[in-house]
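Lab manual, section 2.4: Encoding a predicted structure.

Procedure: take the sequence of the chain (226 residues), apply the prediction step described in section 2.3, and record the output as structure tokens. A sample record is shown.
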Amino acid sequence: MDKSHQIDRQHCLLLALTLILALALRLLLLGHKPFWADEGSTWWMALGEVKYQAPRIYYYAFNWSIQLFGWNEFAGRFPAVLYGVISVLLVYLICRNVWGKRIALLGCLLAAISPYLVAVSQEMRHYSLAGMLLLAAIWCIADILKTQRFSPYWWAGLLIISLLGQFTHCFFVFFLGCACLTFLITFGLKQWQRWLPMMLVTLATLLTQIHLVLSTLSLAGTRPNV
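Recorded output:
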């Protein structure tokens, strides 16, 4: 029993060190480079200055950091760092759920040091947040499929994550479509009670986008000032 506890402590220590490494790599020279064009547009969205075609989630996802650290590049990019580190943890949770603790640590380490993931986490863009929400949705779905726990709390959590994901990136719904297909293949048409909640989550997420479609159509042919 003591040996088992020692192994668990070592595992937790390695996980903590990996997350610290992920944070350090993403904070390295974070405010050193000036904003590039796309980051500049996200900055004004975060401040609430852009009124058209600007997801409201940008304001909540980035504005708090600007209020905390001031008007600088570090403040704008810091939220993406946090979303990136949480993504590394989610990679660990997904891998542990599917393959076990050892593979989970390896996957976590690879995500922590991935040059691409580090670069994405150092930009004031929505990709780091979208990636985090995507991984969170995968974690929920993987747990539901593995444990067969069809708790309303899990589905409510998945619905919230899906709504946030869709308001972050318009392509999130395509992932939900793939998830629906996965449930259909896994359970078949006869076990409709098991895949129906996934369909309802996807439908509810799609319905929230109707106003965006109508708004886009109303702006067709116009060039509003922003």
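Check your result against the sample. Residues 1-123 form one domain.
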